[in-house]
Write a structure and sequence with these properties.
- With about 280 residues, the protein is of the alpha/beta class.
- About 40% of the residues lie in helices and about 20% in strands.
- The chain is built from 8 helices and 8 strands; from the N terminus they run H-H-H-E-H-E-E-H-E-H-E-H-H-E-E-E.
- Strand 1, helix 4 and strand 2 form a beta-alpha-beta unit.
- Helix 1 packs across helix 4 and helix 6 packs parallel to helix 8.
- The chain is globular.
- It starts with a helix and ends with a strand.
Amino acid sequence: MIPSPDDALCAALTRATCRALEQAEIFLPPDVVRALEAARDRETSGIARGEIENILSNIRMAESLRVPICQDTGVPVIYLTLPPGIPLSGTLLDAVAEGVRLATRTIPLRPNVVDPLTRKNTGDNTGPGMPAVHVRHGERLTVTALPKGAGAENMSRVAMMLPTDTGNVARFVAETMLIAGGKPCPPVVLGVGIGGTFDGAAAAAKEALLDPIDTMTEYERGLLDAVNDLCIGPMGLGGKTTALAVKVKGAGCHTASLPVAVNVQCWACRRATVEVEW
């Protein structure tokens, strides 16, 4: 039987998903590495500098040994960009899931996905609702992997604030980090979603983590300053750098509401994009 073009596309999408996860798990993006190096050089505390240097050494070893940066390889969060002419289908989603299974076997990834109530492990990082796939439209077919570990994800929060609370957004962001303390392995990167709906704000906060962290708006820098003023520091041991960056994505919302979400990401702000070629 001669394979159809659809078969070739799905096979290529499976390979690209696996490759995106491999790159994200092993190689930290250059902008994140530069931010960590700058944070190390800024720190006046020997303990804080030492912790960041340990992180940088960990990054170099992962690259050299071609092993995951962290033992918590996270759950697979995938952003699928579809160009005109390629509709979303169950077949494409199955191909992405197969890429996750392949990555789990070959990288390898720790099998993290379990049933929420029985806690039974699926063994391959797939299951109902997993991998989490977000679909966007663009000019090229690409797969972006954003692995999310539990230590950081567990510290994330969402609030339905009043429309008059715009001045309290920074307080909510800083409070989220204050509650988190050293649990998400700071220095962190915070994705903040403002506006939309309850679920939309959370989705925007996570998507904000895909943006490069070497540029920030004045508003984002204000939020970053509020978080760093907490002096939680690297690994919660004190210092100037509690967060490397804060990235914000906004959306229109109901006149009577102000949804705000904070998605916490540890220093291993892992992300990678691979174009699908078939």
